[in-house]
Each structure stands twice: as structure tokens, then as C-alpha cells.
Amino acid sequence: xxxxxxxxxxxxxxxxxxxxxxxxxxxxxxxxxxxxxxxxxxxxxxxxxxxxxxxxxxxxxxxxxxxxxxxxxxxxxxxxxxxxxxxxxxxxxxxxxxxxxxxxxxxxxxxxxxxxxxxxxxxxxxxxxxxxxxxxxxxxxxxxxxxxxxxxxxxxxxxxxxxxxxxxxxxxxxxxxxxxxxxxxxxxxxxxxxxxxxxxxxxxxxxxxxxxxxxxxxxxxxxxxxxxxxxxxxxxxxxxxxxxxxxxxxx
Length: 251
Known about the structure:
Layout: H1 2-18, H2 20-28, H3 37-44, H4 48-60, E1 64-69, E2 72-77, H5 80-95, H6 106-110, E3 112-114, E4 117-119, H7 121-132, E5 136-140, E6 143-146, H8 148-155, H9 161-164, E7 173-177, E8 182-186, H10 187-199, E9 203-205, E10 212-214, H11 216-226, H12 234-239
Antiparallel strand pairs: 1-2, 3-4, 5-6, 7-8, 9-10
Helix pairs in contact: 2-3, 3-4
Domain HTH arsR-type: 2-97
Organism: Pseudomonas serboccidentalis
InterPro entries: ArsR-like_HTH, HTH_ArsR_DNA-bd_dom, HTH_Metal-responsive_Reg, WH-like_DNA-bd_sf, WH_DNA-bd_sf
């Protein structure tokens, strides 16, 4: 009987996500920001009343959470598990195609948020470097730990590693990147790294999307601290004058 109830629950959630407007709503919330039903209606390209009906359905299934502040009502993803499920579905959806061709806009593919951590080319390169340098060590297929040198690296950035390990969530884990089909760093450590990158102005976040832009300072600091050689992101390519030398690029 319990298994039957689980099957029903899975089918209800799958049906809710499968509706195109609700998919757009959920994906737009993957940057970790809360939005109003009016904003989400514009994202989903539906009327305000239709958006409200969709949000009610998503809330009933614990896919989104409602936040009430005075007269204002905001919606966010219920938790990180919803974001991870959406990322996994994006990968599966691309697997269903005859051949894989990423259709992610360049500015999103290079760097973006995945709920509360970093995704895209930049995040995958950082993830791979952390493993290759021995700072990050796989304990199983779904979990990482920091080596002593890795802990020193993150603590040098002002990240309290011990505090992160006490949180009620995974400390560090691979999160499959749907645009790269390779993992980036998730968990509380991944979230802390993104917040550090934002605080130190290594990356800046778009106000109206999940895109992250790498700054000149970020390119230099990430290169020095992590030993990662970074390609130009899409925004850099667009803003770089044709005759300007590489060292003077505008990011």
C-alpha cells in the first residue's frame, strides 16, 4: 500500500512539472530568489489568474514555498532537492535527443546559479580543479570531503568549514550540470563558495536572470588561488573591442 502511495505521489509531481508553464516557473526560481505571482506570470507567458492556479498546484505538491510579507506574496522553490530534481530532468531531457547539442544561451552556459550554488562552465572547471589538486576527495559517488590542504584553501577564503559540516544538508556533493553534462560542486560548500565569489566581487549576478558574469578581479583571483585558466565568457566576448589586446579586455 505504501509503495502504491509513492507511485501516486511521483506521478502527481511528474505531471505538475511536465506542464510547460509550470516548468518555466520552476526553472526561473532556480536562482534561489523569490518572485511574485505577477513576475512568474510574465516568465511563464500566462495570465495572472492562470499563474496563480499553477502556483497553487505547485505549492500543494511541496514544490514551491509561499512567503508572505505584509501585503506581498512571494514564491520560491521549496528546497534544494527540487532544484536538484529539475537539473536532473534537464539532463535526461537532453539525453532523449539523438545527439547532445547544448542550447543554453552562452551567458548562462558560462556561469549561472543552480539554486544556491554555481553552475556552468566556470563551476565545472572549478570542480575538476578541486578534485585534480586533491583539495576535494570523493568518499562515494554522491559525497565529497575536504583534504587538510583543501580545508586550508577554503578557510583562507573566510569560509568556516567546520560550521558548514554541522548544517542539516550535504556538506559537499556532485551536482550534474545540465548544460555541461558534467558535475559541479553542490552542497553547503558549493553554496559558501558562491557567496564568497559574490562578496569578493569575483562574479556579479544579473538582476533578472540566473546568469553570473566573471569580473576581471575574479578571473585573476580564481586563476591565482585555484590555478584555473578560464576562457572568455559570452559577455566578455561581446564587449571586447576587436582591436583591443587580450590584457585590456572589458568583462
